[in-house]
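Chapter review: from sequence to fold.
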Amino acid sequence: MDNEVEMNSHHEYGLLMSLALDNLLEEAEQTKLDAHLGRCARCRTQWSLWQSIAAALYAPPLTAPSPAFVQNFAQRLAAQERRRQVRLGVLLGALTLVMWSIGVAGVVFVIGALIYNQVGWFTETLHWLAYVWTAVSVIGGSLLALLGGVTEEPSAVGLLAGYVVLAGGVLLVWSRYLRRSLRMVEIV
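The token string follows.
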């Protein structure tokens, strides 16, 4: 029983020693710890050991690296970072190229499939365009022949010029009429 009380007492002083190392003891607790350390050789030994460990932990490093080493190390780190950035850029570029290639291949595939599936429509459209071109060519040729025939006769040229002047006059009168009729009526 006596041994257990002494063990709990040492545990309490161990906690006080830990707080003392961190400078967290109040004045009364510090006095109590100092008095116990004066009486107990076991706790004094432990306190001395803890103080030496704390001193070693909080001590500054014994040697500093040379400036050349620091500069060399910084350059190597910078070069390594640059290499990492280049590798990342190349990887992103390659991924972008692959994605674009897949996209273009997909579009080409879809367009090819649409054309293949719509061959009948495509050929019908080509035939229709050929008919339209033929019709436009025939009508255009006919109009050119008509114009050529009209310009050969002097009386037809006068008739054509009169028609153009008359049509221009009608358009002019019509546009003035539309302007007047579409003008907003002012409310007084």
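Two observations follow directly from the output. The chain has a mean pLDDT of 84. The radius of gyration is 52 Å.
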